Amino acid sequence: MMFKGNSIRNLMLWVLWMGLSLPVMAASNQASTPQVTATLISSHSHIAPGEQIILGIKLDILPHWHTYWRNPGDSGTVTTIGWKFSQPVEAGDVVWPLPDRFKMGPIVNYGYENSVTLPTPLKLPADLKPGKPLKVQAVVDWLVCKEECIPQQVVLSLDLPVVAAGQGQKTAAPDIDLALERQPAKVSWPVRLQGSDGSLTLLVDAPELADAAVKDIWFYPYEWGKIAQSHEQVVTKTATGIAIELHAGDMPLQPGEALEGVLIAKGQNIETSGYLLNPKLQTVTESSPAETGTDSLLLAIFLAFAGGMVLNLMPCVFPVLSIKALSLISHSSLGRGELIRQGLVYTLGVVVSFVALALVLVLLKAGGAQVGWGFQFQSPWFVFLMAYLMFTVGLNLSGVFTIGGGISGVGSHLADKPGYWGSFFTGVLATVVATPCTAPFMAAALGFALARPAHELIVIFISLGLGLAFPYLLLTSWPGLQKALPKPGIWMEYTKQFFAFPMYAAAVWLVWVLAQQQGELAVVLVLSGFVLIALAAWIYSISRGASSIRLKFANAGVVLVVGLAIGLVTLLAETSTEALPDKQAKSLKQNWQPYSAEKLESLLAEGKPVFLNFTAAWCISCLVNEKVALSQPEVVEAFEQQGITYLKGDWTNKDAEITKILTKFGRSGVPLYVFYPPGHAGKPIELPQILTPASVLSHIQP
User: Fold this and answer.
1) How many helices (H) and strands (E) does the chain have?
2) Considering the entire predicted model, what is its pTM?
């Protein structure tokens, strides 16, 4: 009888649950089934309060049959032990000896044959009562397999005499000793795990493993699903040790996640050895630099710089840069040195902001979070505050209020004065509004950065910031470009006021993002905040030049009103996404369906063509691509004619499934467009991040 996959595992568990195993054996320290004899043994003949002892379940298995390890492999179930004690005793976890592997056709399992002892450490309480034996009961369940598999259960018991403290007596327990000797050793070898398109490479810098006497090396993962057990593990020698080719399993690792397990080496005339490994996955994809050396880091730095430059043309950033250019025109009489310093301070604001963003990503990654570019826009609170900021900047540009030199930089210096704080703040603002946009070249650099150590991630983010700041830095440093700028005039005031409207538009867009994330109540809250901010701006404006007492009251009113506006943010936690319209029902009116891993897997299994679009409400590039390309009649018609199923994944809020597939393609954020051709011959096709109808049609044409 052949068992395949996780369905057999579930079937076996169901069989156990329904009690279709052999009857429970009578309670003693030994019990037998036709295939297995189980014995409960102890490291001590007499036990004492406060001591630590070891109990073991020894399984003597009929030849050609086997039981299973902590990770059974492609099929099978783990052996379990349920302990019961007559007095309170703390039982630890099973200490698993090194396993063997068994192949049955395409199935690979991990377990034990002939004989195995499973030790369990026990911590005896200090108030254990001497003179009264400790009664131990172990309910042991296992699955024993040959061609067929049989679930079995026995109940074992043992009475251990309790003596006074310090008088415990050990007993000869060679089976327990042997099991403890067959534990994996902790090593200090450099170990790396690299991933690319479902393939994993385990690099172990241990020259002794490359010795010719070592004939069999296999990695046994502690958790099922992390790798595909049925795939052959190809071992090759490297300059510093070995490399093992693995394949991702049904529950693949995420970047930064550790693959814990045991590397077992066997050979002729050498002792079988096991080594505990725990490397973290570093993702390498075709769209990102393929190696992890200096050359790939330099390439990622270059791509980040180029992506940062292109960000200046994105609708998120261009208005901010244009406002700063107006400020430069209005102060064209400044000396060259002063203009250069303005450009440097602006650059500093951009770079400091990118470094801060990189440090946040490093901390979140260290805490186990899976994050990507624009991750902060998945927080409704951040979107709420950004909407306030855009609206406030718009009021300032419209002339509703100006902020004096005492608080220089927050508003007026953005366009009116050359103050250093104004330049620095503009750099910060440019960074903040750039994060929902993704430009060409950025995906490869960011995908590489998020899989690299902290210092490399920070270097790549600095390069991205330098790219974003470079056009303005060039403008302030090159007199020839400055001469090409138009002369100052009243047109500048009108232009400045005109640029208030992109800020208002950005605020409206952020309100729409909140509606997607949190529903109607969030919209009411943020619009109420807009009214309060406008009131505060008006109070501040009419109080300028007033007497000191009147000014104090006015400023207090501003603080109170702004405080009320910020206080609305705290109510955001009470809003519920349950009020959102059913996206699946809404999608029925569109030419797309909501993405799910199960739906994609089903379509691919049927060989149907699939187009994936991963987007977010806060991603401006995504929204533009959908309007100018994916929703155009010729593209919609092509999808229908070719029977292409269009799946859209919404990453507006955190979604582990979408994060998982983004990571698979080496992306740290959206947009991501992937086309699976009919029959899925070859690899899926990744489309560029900037789409046109022609580019989409060229990729999906047969």
Assistant:
1) 20, 27
2) 0.43
